[in-house]
Specification:
- The chain is an alpha/beta fold.
- It folds into 4 domains: 1-44; 47-100, OB fold (Dihydrolipoamide Acetyltransferase, E2P); 108-289, P-loop containing nucleotide triphosphate hydrolases (Rossmann fold); 295-374, Helicase, Ruva Protein, domain 3 (Orthogonal Bundle).
- Helices cover 45% and strands 16% of the residues.
- The chain has a 6-stranded mixed sheet. The chain has a 5-stranded antiparallel sheet with strand order 3-2-1-4-5, with no helix packed on it.
- Helix 10 (329-345) packs across helix 11 (353-366).
- 30% of the residues are buried.
């Protein structure tokens, strides 16, 4: 090999090494720059999550997490804001930097029961009048909204079911949810009032947000009286929290945004103590009384709960219904179940008249009101 060839090989080798070193150097510089940017980002002051309360030209009124409100500047490159938006603000001057997607404070699904009920109307006995009213107010607007547009009226946003316990209020709500193929969101009034100040109101807001996301939906509020009792001058923080939560519920029902395919069904055993604000027209303005069923209604309920039972031919339904004079629908259901247990205990598959009588006697004995009557 000539000396010139050797020199060329050496030069080529060095040139190749130089190219590799330059490439490695470039990669290292990019890595160092990336690490410096990451360090700078981690050292930067954290931004505060705030809520926009009002807007005035290029300024905004924001509420910070501790509840205080401030009049602040908004960055020129910040996207358009609206009251209720969640934003990031500097901690020092509280200037709004940018808008962010509102994050849920709660995993709201832990606080509610969400289901798609399978309760047909023929599973509801003795409540024909109430069923018809609910169909008019809840079912018809969800199934035929165009009918209301043609007539030019706005259907009610919600209804109130009131009456003694166990008379079928929840059953009615689930039946209308089934017929309209709606998501059934059940919440308990007492669950809406949380331990920490302000959380009950936030939970109400997020429950209705969830209802809109899952529309068509029915929000069923059980024990409404725990939340919407008549307001009085109060001093304790707990009572003030109940009122804040109640006011948020009213705001959601009234709504700046349309409830669309969301209907509200309130349920209470104590209509007499409810605040008039929840009962006025435009809120829960249709009130449906669900009382102890009539004798004919009891017979229908009894037939529904015994249709799959093997009953003796000597069972006298008329006499049994008379024995259940003060029974609610839930107590009739319980009596049928207990009668089945009496048959099982005797190793029988057929339920007799005496089994039903024993079951009715047991239900009457277990009733707290009957217990109180026995002992004055």
């Amino acid at each position: 090999m000539s000396s010139n060839t050797k020199i060329e090989n050496v030069v080529y080798s060095y040139a190749t090494d130089l190219t590799q070193l330059e490439e490695e150097n470039r990669i290292l510089k990019e890595t160092v720059a990336s690490l410096r940017a990451e360090i700078s980002r981690l050292k930067s002051a954290p931004l505060m999550v705030c809520e926009v309360k009002d807007l005035m030209d290029d300024n905004a009124v924001i509420k910070i997490p501790n509840g205080s409100s401030f009049f602040v500047n908004v960055a020129t490159d910040c996207e358009k804001l609206a009251p209720g938006d969640t934003v990031l603000a500097e901690q020092k001057n509280l200037n709004v930097i940018r808008k962010i997607t509102s994050q849920k404070t709660f995993d709201v699904e832990k606080f509610v029961i969400i289901e798609t009920p399978q309760v047909p109307w023929d599973a509801v006995g003795g409540l024909e009048r109430q069923s018809e009213e609910i169909k008019e107010v809840i079912e018809l607007p969800l199934k035929k909204p165009e009918l209301f547009k043609k007539v030019g009226i706005t259907p009610p946003k919600g209804i109130l079911l009131h009456g003694p316990p166990g008379t079928g209020k929840t059953l009615l709500a689930k039946a209308v949810a089934t017929s309209t193929k709606s998501t059934f969101i059940e919440i308990v009034g007492s669950e809406l009032v949380q331990k920490f100040i302000g959380e009950g109101a936030k939970l109400v807001k997020e429950v209705f947000q969830l209802a809109r996301e899952k529309a068509p939906s029915i929000v069923f509020i059980d024990e409404l009286d725990a939340l919407a009792a008549t307001r009085v001058d109060v001093g304790t923080s707990g009572e003030r929290e109940v009122q804040r939560t109640f006011m948020q519920l009213l705001a959601e029902i009234d709504g700046f945004k349309s409830l669309d395919n969301v209907k509200i069904i309130g349920c209470t055993n104590r209509k007499d103590i409810l605040d008039p604000a929840i009962l006025r027209p435009g809120r829960l303005d249709r009130h449906i009384s669900v009382d102890i069923p009539t004798l004919e209604g009891k017979k229908e309920i009894f037939k529904i709960h015994t249709k799959d039972m093997r009953t003796d031919k000597n069972v006298n339904v008329h006499k049994l219904i008379k024995e259940m004079k003060e029974f609610s629908g839930a107590e009739i259901h319980s009596a049928c179940t207990e009668a089945g247990y009496f048959a099982i205990r005797d190793n029988r598959t057929q339920v007799t008249h005496s089994d039903f009588l024993e079951a009715i006697k047991k239900i009457k004995t277990d009733d707290p009101e009957n217990f109180l009557n026995m002992f004055g």
